[in-house]
Amino acid sequence: MIECLQLGKSYGKECDLFQGATLHVRKGESLVVSGRAGSGKSTLLRILLGVECPDAGQVLFQRRNVHEISARLRSALRRKMGVVAQNGPVAMEWTVFDNVALPLILAGQDRWLVKKCVLHQLESLGLHGKAHVRCGALNTSERRRVEIARAAIHNPLIFLADEPFQGLETDERTRVRSLFNALSVGGSTIVILSRETPEMLGMAGARWVRIAHRRFIEGLSGPSIPSRGAASV
Amino acid sequence: MSGELFKHLAGRMIARVARRPLAHLLWILFSMICLYGLGLIAFAALRAPQVFPAWLTKADAVVYLKPGASPMEEQAAWEELSRWPELSSIRIVTRNEVYGRLEKQLGPWRGVLSGMGMKTLQASLEVCFQDSFKEQERREELIARMRLLPDVAEVLYGNGEGDRLKSILHWIGRGLSLSAGALVLLYTCAHWGWLLVLISGSRDELEVLWWVGAPDWLIRLPFLLSSWAAGAFGAIMALGLIALTNHSLETRLPLPLAALFVMDSGEWLLLGSVMSGISLLTGSVGVYLTTGPMRRVCSDDRSS
Predict the structure, then answer these.
(1) CB-count burial class (<10 Å; 0-12, 13-18, 19+) for A200
(2) Where residue B242 falls among pLDDT bands split at 50, 70, 90?
(3) Does the distance separating the beta carbons of A42 and B208 come in below 8 Å?
(4) Confidence check: pLDDT of A176 > 50
(5) Which of A135, A104, A130 is nearest to A117 (CA)?
(6) Is residue A76 part of a domain?
(7) Are residues A125 and A175 in contact, defined by beta-carbon separation less than 8 angstroms?
(8) Is residue B71 scored above 90 in pLDDT?
(9) Residue A149 lies in a domain
């Protein structure tokens, strides 16, 4: 589904990320990419989205290089994805409903279906009763959940999330985790970028890849398991 | 376009207006002022040929016969001048033709002609000189001789006035075109600036749209529609202002002048079309010019 081949990205001499690392993400797979702050998780997200070009290598989505396709095709690709970025945007003047419904509206879904799906999604994330509240009036955790709800509402082919649990309380994390499970059952490919391990995230079944020593290293389970030192995973 | 998408676009537009009602009102007023100026220019262009009729420019001199001269006398004057070798052409303008011209020039006020009666109208002979008689001195001598003819009331310099009129018309045309061009440019630049303000005020919206993969046209459409709507409001208000100005001038000025400010439905349609067309065009150009800044806002990354 996603192939990062011989990836390289540097920000000057002091910050050299990935160094020709390779990563394959299979269809329907749940993957947690973890690493320290500054290890390149957010950069990886930007590269996967086509926002940022790698200095070396390529990113293939369904065998097409995301950095070589036209802007129109990239837009179409983003419609197939669900993206939760760190400090991602939420339209503050719109209501929660309008924000969450947007991907379904773009997909041309019927009004009744949009309403049904959005209300169900909001309820599952503990935002029931907030549908017609302006996003500007929400707290940080609620905004985060709005963003997650928006990214997942259309059962995307790929769900990419950068620190999705940041700023969430325990019960809110549980709700979000359930949503991820539902997405996974629905066949979505899930890629979570986080400082935490799958166990800490409560996603023990997920494949774990660490970013360490400027490479992707396959993790077995838990943070204490040593890396296998593979440059290519 | 699905109903939900239409509702979403309309919602975005209304929310934007509701967020900054005063700014939108000011923009509509500015549009109105620009379009009012353009409307006045278009109106002046419509009226210029009536104020300076082209037919005055065709002859070197116009020999006016006495009012009430009979067709026989008109014919006699024509025959007399036809014998003059200094003249290259003579054209008789009968009282019926004068009536027709006045009727055309007065437009909706032509009814006043019926009260004047044909007797008050003067037939005339439009004459052109041979090239060798177009110099000032020889022309004046010829005109002095024409004035001595029987049944001639007055002889006016057609060509001299014509040249002046042509020149005036030329400069008026140039002035109107330049003013219209400057106003359109100003309006387009203002559109551009206005859209930049809207874009910076809708930054988060644009980013959300970009993240969910909204196509370019969907991101731009509400801005385009906002521009067009403000332009349409401005055009309607400007047309109303022109109607008000014309009405007040028409009721205050004496008759021949007042007639200039009466507009028929065709002229209103033309003026309305010109103003709406300009507002649509400048709005579209403004949105096109802001594509770059819009893309920069959209793809600006906040994930790090």
Answers:
(1) middle
(2) very high
(3) no
(4) yes
(5) A104
(6) yes
(7) yes
(8) no
(9) no
Task: Report ipTM for this prediction.
Answer: 0.82
Q: How does strand A30-35 pair with strand A207-212?
A: parallel
Which residue range is the domain that position A38 belongs to? 2-88+156-219
At which residue do the structure tokens 């529609």 appear? B225
pLDDT-based confidence at residue A223 (cuts at 50, 70, 90): very low
Report, as an integer, the average pLDDT of B208-231: 85
Query: Which of B2, B4, B9 would best serve as a mutation to test chain A binding (most A beta carbons within 10 A)?
Result: B4
Asked, for residue A70, whether it belongs to a domain, the answer is: yes
Res. B118: pLDDT tops 70: no
- What is the average pLDDT across A192-214? 80
Rounded to the nearest 5 degrees, what angle is found at the Cα of A229, between the Cα atoms of A225 and A232?
120
pTM: 0.68
Whole-angstrom distance, CA of residue B68 vs CA of residue B98? 13
pLDDT greater than 70 at residue A227: no
Q: Which residue of A has its CA nearest to B206?
A: A91
CA distance B107 to chain A (A): 55
Q: Number of Cβ pairs closer than 8 Å across A and B?
A: 96
Average pLDDT across chain B, whole number: 81
In terms of residues, how long is chain B?
Answer: 304
Using CA atoms in the order A192, A196, A201, A204, what is the torsion angle rounded to 10 degrees?
90
d(CA A63, CA A80): 15
Q: Which CATH number is A211's domain given?
A: 3.40.50.300
CA-based nearest distance A94→chain B, Å: 8
- Please say whether the beta carbons of A42 and A86 come within 8 A: yes
Instruction: Look at chain A and count its residues.
Output: 233
8 Å CB contact between B13 and B229: yes
What structural domains and CATH numbers belong to chain B?
Answer: 3-53+165-299 (no CATH), 57-160 (3.30.70.3040)
Q: How far is CA A199 from CA A186, A205, A207, A222, in A?
A: 22, 8, 11, 6
- Is A135 domain-assigned? no
- What average pLDDT does this structure show over B203-230? 85
Give the pairing type, strands A2-10 and B61-65: unpaired
Residue-level pLDDT at A117:
92
Number of C-beta neighbours around residue A186 at 10 A = 12
Helices marked H in B83-157: 95-106, 111-116, 136-147
Number of domains in chain A: 1
